[in-house]
Amino acid sequence: MMNRIKQKPELKGYLTLVLHAHLPYIRHHDRDDYMEERWFYEALTETYLPLVDMMERLIQDQVDFRLTFSMTPTLLSLLSDPLMQDRYRLYLSKLIGLADQEIIRLEKDPKLQPLAHMYSERFRKLQRLFESCDGKLIQRFKQLQDDGYVEIVTSAATHGFLPLMKTEEAIKAQIATAVRDYEKHFGRKPRGIWLPECGFTTGIDRILKQYGIDYFFADSTAVAFASPTPNRELYAPLMTPYGVSAFPRDPESASQVWSSENGYPGDFNYREYYRDIGWDLGWNNMEEWEYIRPHVLPTNERVNTGIKYYRITGKGNHREPYNPQWALEKAAEHADNFLYNRKLQAEHWYHWLDRKPLIVSPYDAELFGHWWYEGPQWIEMLCRKAFHDQHSIKLITPSEYLQEYPVADVGKLNESSWGRNHSAEVWLQGNNDWIYRHLHQAEERMIRLATKHQHVENHGRMKAALLKRALNQAARELMLAQSSDWAFIMDSRTVVDYAVRRTKNHLGCFHHICDQVDREDIDETLLASLEYQDNCFPDIDYRDYVSIQKHSPLSILPSMRDFEQLLEETKHRPNIFMLSWEYPPKHVGGLSRAVHECSEALAARGEIVHVITTSHYGAPHFEKMNGVYVHRLPVDCSGDTHFYHWTFEMNLAMVDHLVRYKEAGGRIDLLHAHDWMVQIAAREIKHSYGIPLVATIHATEWGRNQGKLYTELQQKIHHLEWKLTYEAQLVFVCSRYMKEQVQSIFNLPEDKVLVFPNGIRLPEETQHQSVRPAFLAEDEQMIFYIGRLVFEKGVQALIEAMPAILSQFPRARLVIAGSGPMEQELRDQAAQLGDRVWFTGFVDDTYRSQLYQAADVCVIPSFYEPFGIVALEAMAHKRPLVLSDTGGLAEIITHGAEGYKALPGHIDSLAWHITEMLLNPEVASKMADSAYTLLQQQYQWKNIAANMQEEYRKLDFYQTPIEAERMEVTT
């Protein structure tokens, strides 16, 4: 009998815990006794090092957790600065010395001396942790991200409050600088961003998308008051019209931690922040003052030392000694309470939503440890409890949630922030409004100079280098003046003089440099001094401020000279026009990449290919890109900005452009439309000029919704898909499975639908031997699965097959890479197998490639699969392959030739085929080689393009025999 798996209950929801790690750029090159610089030392000692220590304990105890950190570029600059690292070493040594002195001072105080011992041991432990990475704490965070435990997002370069900047160029420069800085530190581009103060206004999302940002965090009011009202309220991200996801802050979980009245940190058992020996000692005792004076500022200004002996105790002035054990027990109680309340939220919304609800809980990182001493312990206990609780909600990162639910509602977000009254009030009121006229004037001056000198190389090598340095430093000074921290301090009325001085000094330096640039007479000595003084962002590029040219939809044809050249290049042979709403550098889904690869492959084979697509911030409106003529059209939105209605405006722009191009003498010989979004333009041009039309259906609304069309919008999209397939002479799909689906739901004749599979780029050959994963012993056989952990992927069947495999290969190990709603359930199922099943969690591209190379066999045990790009990845790495005989997946290989096909959900079949691969490594290797050859023949874009060309030719749009003959010679 067939042994099939029954579906088990799923988790009810997810929790994303976000820690916003930020400090303004408080490095002072001249001396180290500024009070503000101590903010950095205190944050390291009380927050960042304890958090790293906490996460490493969790990993050591094999607790799988997920946390999200936003690390601002200014903080990264401080953490990576050798000067700040050395100053911190000195600070920590003095602090250890003070704690040791406290042990002696309190030798007759049995209540407080144990706490002095606690601090002495704690500071030494943090010192060892800091030195273990040679002060390079960023590398520890990078490793945690590379290992899949945390996700790190960026922020604007200097944490400038973006909605109050006057120009788009200034916002763009803040984002561009941040992305480059992130990539330098973490070796990858950021997927997400923390908008400073969660400040959002319309248009910021467009700039984020330009730089590859997939998501950001928003205040609850941004989504709650979005238009149209989001169906999933605050329990799922909302996509903006530019394809960026906004994750809304959950007010309920925020208040449980933040609330000054009822928040956890105010509990009477926790350590009192405001009772520090730096303030307590020496007011009426000269001996005490002499004792503590070396640990305050040279101006005798008192500061916190970090040594605090009292708990909150109560609301009066009476305080009792801190009891660490009581505090630890209370933190455990609060972690239980927090998790319990999140479960209630998740269970409630689980019954109302079409997906698992997500609760996003963002906090300032320094709340944990600095303000709330027990905060890191609370997070640790929360992670442990979430991991061990069988029915709890699961911690997840934003990227993992988007991977599981890539489709979201689209809406226009409300302008908002997480500040007072959910507005810009904190950063724009009577105490700080004077700064903006100066900042706005500086923005405009920077744009003028950057635009004037965008081709600085024209000035000669030596002069150009100096001019470029000056312009980059001007950009640096402007960004530092824009920091939201200065306006925040002016509002809070704390160190106002410092904030005013920083704003004025940076603006003064900015204008001084700009004056020299205007004269083209740079004082190199002064410039070098400023570069040493304010040395953040070594990769800053002043050209980010180059003026953005505004274009009308009616004026985006190439210049007359370029247009004449274009006509000359393209008049002798047929011109193919691809219509696609997205194309690089615009990436929203997989459509952009597919059209890009297809069009360039066709161009490489001699076809003249144009792509008509939509404009993207920073990309030229017309260019020849790798042989493809790319026309990017601005789209003026009118009325409702919902994506469906926006596509109508886009189609109008496409029709207008193609008509003007045709009437100006351009050739249009074939239209190739990609998905329903361009149906209107494709049909209009087809009928207006009698031009053949081909359509590619990448996915269907029917398929996305499992064969059910619930809403009016879904029915409209389905109808547009049908109309596109009706109008097209040929319809292309990626698999026979999709062909059957399209034929069935759109009632198409069999010969009208043609299969062109997806392609894949082969990995670059490496000259070095691949590094075997640390957890995998040399004598172990690795069985590898990668993908989402959901029921239809069949991982549960693979785990159930392991005992039969282990009976023949006791040293075999199943490695499961990826995440999803069934992860905890699968871990529970695999627990009895011990370390024979290893979960890696989410993996990046580099680690994924390493796992592929180490695998003895790759397994795809899906119950349902439309195509299966993962199978191509395994083939590209020349790994033996066992996959399920289902859907489009089954079409990729021939059983016994390029791999094995197991019956879907059949445990014995799966175990037998995997065992066969391990028993016969030579046969398995030959199959992998055959699969690689098949991949080269059938799944490379150059081959796919050749087959597509043959179908194009059958449409007989080559107008003369000479042209057809020339095409034969070319290809």
Characterise the protein shown here.
This protein has 971 residues and is α/β, with parallel strands linked by helices. The chain folds into four domains: 374 residues, Glycoside hydrolase 38, N terminal domain (7-stranded beta/alpha barrel, Alpha-Beta Barrel); 118 residues, Families 57/38 glycoside transferase, middle domain (immunoglobulin/albumin-binding domain-like), CATH 1.20.1430.10; 196 residues, Glycogen Phosphorylase B (Rossmann fold, 3-Layer(aba) Sandwich); 159 residues, Glycogen Phosphorylase B (Rossmann fold, 3-Layer(aba) Sandwich), CATH 3.40.50.2000. The protein has 34 helices and 23 strands. The strands form three sheets. Strands 1, 2, 3, 4, 5, 6, 7, 8 and 9 form a nine-stranded mixed β-sheet that branches. An eight-stranded mixed β-sheet has the order 12-13-11-10-14-15-16-17, sandwiched between helices. A six-stranded parallel β-sheet has the order 20-19-18-21-22-23, with helices on both faces. Strand 3, helix 6 and strand 4 form a beta-alpha-beta unit. It is globular, with a radius of gyration of 31 Å. The N terminus and C terminus are likely disordered.
